[in-house]
Write a structure and sequence with these properties.
By secondary structure, the protein is α+β, with helices and mostly antiparallel strands. It has one domain: Alpha-Beta Complex (Creatine Amidinohydrolase), CATH 3.90.230.10. The chain is globular, with a radius of gyration of 17 Å.
């Protein structure tokens, strides 16, 4: 199913996106050495509840999973890049943390992800340069994908733009998981893999909402599934990064709905 949202629904999507962007910035500010991943999950639940919204993840149970996710946010540390299930782990300076959040507010969902080094630049020592390069590549790929999203363009234009940046940065690209349509539900058509051919795929139309999410691993394109049945890690144990925005296709191009807003206290 591909949804074409009305102007009123897109406006509601702006509110959802602002909420997601704000929560992620709040969590980034709070995530310091000693913070437990389960604390991050608890804070996320509180912030979502205070806004009168719903996490898209708690009851999320795709066919390949062993039951629902059961948490409000995905937390990936170092080699954990996607679907990171929060567990009893305390962050240390230099950890590369990825946070992925999808929320439903007033009937419209928004989805975004950020990656950052705990403790800031310099905290990871020799790993810091690698971590920052990974994050930078995903952020540049995301910007390129968004720039390629325009009405009457194709999803392949977005995929090609993302893949070009990641490959030119020296990374191998896994296309098993990528971006997707979003609207009244979190995951819907069309799929947006992180590499592809331009002028191919679904035609983009005004009123479509898309979640675009480049992710990359330092020295492999192969994933392995953690014992928790959810967390996807790099097969070699190398570091990873994941960046995502929800955008709306407008007559003028792409509007980012999940831009960071002021952190909450």
């Amino acid at each position: 199913m591909i949804e074409i949202l009305s102007p009123a629904e897109v406006q509601r999507g702006r509110a959802t996106g602002a909420l997601v962007g704000g929560i992620l910035q709040t969590l980034k500010q709070r995530s310091v050495a000693g913070t437990n991943l389960l604390e991050i999950d608890r804070w996320t639940r509180q912030l979502i509840d205070e806004a009168g919204a719903t996490s898209c993840y708690i009851d999320y149970a795709p066919v390949w999973a062993d039951g629902p996710f059961g948490h409000a946010i995905c937390t990936g540390v170092n080699d954990g890049v996607l679907h990171g299930k929060p567990y009893d782990y305390r962050l240390v300076d230099g950890d590369l943390l990825s946070l992925d959040l999808a929320v439903l507010l007033d009937g419209i969902a928004a989805d975004a992800a950020i990656s950052f080094v705990v403790g800031g630049e310099g905290a990871a020592g020799s790993a810091d340069a690698e971590s920052l390069a990974l994050i930078d590549a995903t952020e540049r790929a995301l910007a390129a994908g968004i720039a390629a999203a325009r009405p009457r363009g194709r999803t392949g234009d977005i995929s090609h733009a993302i893949g070009t940046v990641l490959r030119e940065a020296g990374y191998r690209v896994n296309t098993d998981f990528g971006g997707h349509g979003i609207g009244t539900v979190m995951h819907q058509e069309p799929p947006i893999p992180n590499d592809g051919r331009p002028s191919r795929g679904y035609e983009l139309r005004t009123g479509m909402l898309l979640a675009i999410e480049p992710w990359v691993m330092a020295d492999t394109a192969e994933l392995v599934t953690d014992e928790d049945g959810w967390t996807l890690r790099s097969a070699t144990g190398c570091r990873t990064a994941h960046t995502e925005h929800t955008i709306a296709i407008t007559e003028d191009g792409a509007e980012i709905l999940t831009l960071p807003s002021a952190p909450r206290s």
